[in-house]
Backbone:
């Protein structure tokens, strides 16, 4: 049992400002209570796999949604995606890529690796807030996962 | 000294790769701070507008407007780079109808 067992949304984002805006958007639609913010890919994998600083976490408690930035130091988003989607224990966790990049090769590669959604972070504030709220609402309250 | 066609081609291909990585940096790295400037200025507006006098709110709207303009410039830069990487399309053009269309868009002189 650990303080992280209740986490429903795992936000993986190295950019502080984007993280703060994402958290604000989720707070606005009251789905923030169980969010954890991992600052890079290594931390994200440690969290999901209950290793390192998260060794106390219950491995059966998987997040209901992972919001994943693609370009990050240490281990980037595509590597995290590859690792989680190639492991039978974690492949059913919905992962939505949220990135500044609208480059075709990133979109194509993400889907090839099994991403569940791909969203280019809107530059306009209102659109950004709306996009995050829609993603949160859909994956937490509309979508169903096995188990 | 003559440079072989193969060498030319290799140089052009190298430039293409460079251009692509430049566009990637522009779209990713430059957009992030612009998004943050717009976003945080909006947050300031949402949470603290009541504490600002009209001049303060005007200054804030200038920040937001200029950041939005920077974003439009990034969009333009990317569109241009994509355009130059495409092969030129040659199609017949009806000059007469193009002229007529342009003239019809021109504002009528005042009577």
Residues:
């Amino acid at each position: 049992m650990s303080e992280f067992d209740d986490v429903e949304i795992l936000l993986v984002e190295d950019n502080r400002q984007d993280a703060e805006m994402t958290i604000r958007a989720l707070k606005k639609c009251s789905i923030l209570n169980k969010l954890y913010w991992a600052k890079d890919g290594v931390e994200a994998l440690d969290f999901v796999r209950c290793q390192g600083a998260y060794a106390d976490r219950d491995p059966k408690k998987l997040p209901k949604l992972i919001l994943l930035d693609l370009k990050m130091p240490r281990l980037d988003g595509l590597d995290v995606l590859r690792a989680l989607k190639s492991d039978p224990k974690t492949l059913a966790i919905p992962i939505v890529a949220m990135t500044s990049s609208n480059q075709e090769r990133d979109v194509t590669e993400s889907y090839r690796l099994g991403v569940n959604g791909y969203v280019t972070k809107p530059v306009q504030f209102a659109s950004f807030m709306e996009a995050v709220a829609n993603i949160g609402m859909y994956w937490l309250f509309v979508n169903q996962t096995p188990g | 000294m003559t440079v072989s066609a193969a060498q030319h081609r290799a140089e052009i291909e190298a430039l293409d790769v460079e251009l692509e990585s430049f566009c990637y940096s522009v779209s990713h790295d430059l957009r992030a701070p612009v998004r943050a400037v717009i976003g945080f200025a909006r947050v300031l507006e949402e949470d603290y507008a009541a504490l600002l006098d009209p001049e303060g709110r005007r200054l804030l709207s200038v920040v937001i407007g200029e950041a939005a303009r920077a974003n439009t410039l990034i969009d333009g830069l990317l569109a241009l780079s994509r355009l130059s990487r495409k092969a030129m399309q040659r199609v017949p053009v009806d000059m007469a109808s193009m002229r007529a269309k342009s003239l019809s868009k021109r504002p009528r002189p005042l009577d």
